[in-house]
Amino acid sequence: MQPWVDHIIRAKNMMVAQEIIELFAELIYIRRLRSAVLLLITSSKYIAKKLGPCVQ
Question: Which domain of life is it from (predicted)?
C-alpha cells in the first residue's frame, strides 16, 4: 500500500478506538450515577420513615 493510505487507515482506526473508549467511559459514568441515585432514594426512604413520626 501507499504510505498515505496507511496513514489514513491508521487515523481511522485511532478514531474508532477513541470512540470506543469514550463510550466505555460514558457507560461507567452512567452506572456510577445510577448507583448513586439509587443510594440516595434508598436513604431518603429510610430517613422519611424515621422522621415521619417526629413530624406528625
Answer: Eukaryota
Alpha-carbon distance of 12 to 2, in angstroms, equals 16
CA 23 to chain centre: 8
Residue ranges in 1-56 assigned as alpha helix (H): 3-55
Cell of 13: 482506526
Alpha-carbon distance of 19 to 9, in angstroms, equals 15
What CA–CA distance (Å, rounded) separates 35 from 43?
12
The model's pTM is 0.61
C-alpha grid cell, residue 28: 461507567
